[in-house]
Design goal:
- α3 packs antiparallel against α4 and α5 runs parallel beside α6.
- The protein is built from six helices and six strands, in the order βααβααβαβαββ.
- It is globular.
- It has a single domain, classed as 5'-nuclease (Rossmann fold, 3-Layer(aba) Sandwich), CATH 3.40.50.1010.
- It is α/β, with parallel strands linked by helices.
Length: 122
């Protein structure tokens, strides 16, 4: 199973010092692949250029820690994540309220940060 990481999730996980590798393994015990889309990388680059807190660290996490980067459709990032998840049977990790709603309306599983300390399925 592909576990898609979005921008808000990556930045928030770092902010709250959550080990996403251990936590995702706990929530998704079946074999999985951590991944994101190039659309998310573009968002992280923009946030890094604006010196947003944790954006550069999130970029390092993705590029240096066995997170696959897939090519997303050239549409709004949230829509690209939902389309990809729908096509590949992936689930999405996000803190974004609108993205959660879009994903759930398409019957896509969503993982979020709960109580600033652990992950859970939403």
């Amino acid at each position: 199973m592909i576990v898609l990481l979005d921008t808000s999730f990556l930045v928030s996980a770092l902010k709250f010092k959550i080990d996403i590798y251990d936590e995702i393994a706990r929530v998704v015990p079946e074999r999985h692949e951590l991944a994101t889309l190039d659309n998310v990388i573009t968002e992280l680059e923009k946030l890094t250029a604006r010196k947003e807190k944790n954006a550069a660290l999130a970029m390092q996490l993705v590029t240096h820690k066995k997170v696959s980067i897939y090519k997303g459709k050239r549409i709004q990032c949230d829509d690209a994540l939902v389309e990809f998840a729908k096509e590949k049977g992936a689930l999405i990790c996000t803190q974004d309220k609108e993205l959660k709603q879009k994903a759930k309306s398409q019957k896509i599983r969503v993982i979020t940060i709960k109580n600033k300390s652990h992950l859970g399925e939403d």
